[in-house]
Amino acid sequence: MHTYADEHNGHRGIRQLRLLIPLIDGLSESPPESWLRLLTIRADLPTPELQIRVADKTGRIYARIDLGYEKYQIAIEYDGEDFHSTPEQRAHDAARDAQLDDDG
User: Fold this and answer.
1) What is the domain range of residue 98?
2) Domain total in the chain
3) How confident is the model over 7-33, as pLDDT tens digits?
4) What is d(CA 14, CA 54) in angstroms, rounded to the nearest whole number?
5) Is 46 in a helix, a strand, or coil?
6) 47: which DSSP letter?
7) Is 22 inside a domain boundary?
8) Which helix (H) or strand (E) holds 4?
């Protein structure tokens, strides 16, 4: 992105692009996840980690948190209607959330 901005110096929108480049993170898996991450940054919170893997006591990874702060065990999830609206998915999410609560 920096190369593109450098090659198009003086073009319309390049100043705004230079401000946005540091905020880009390819680990965000959806626009709402990016929106949540930007809200935390704009609130002067530390930049959250993305796609945090959570393992149980045996080492099996059972969850991947959209964004949060692993050190403080803070998880931030965006449960979009498209993927979290069926009864089966809601039950799966509830079981995962209960496991996360049990694990602290």
Assistant:
1) 27-102
2) 1
3) 777 778 777 777 666 666 777 778 888
4) 39
5) coil
6) P
7) no
8) helix 2-7
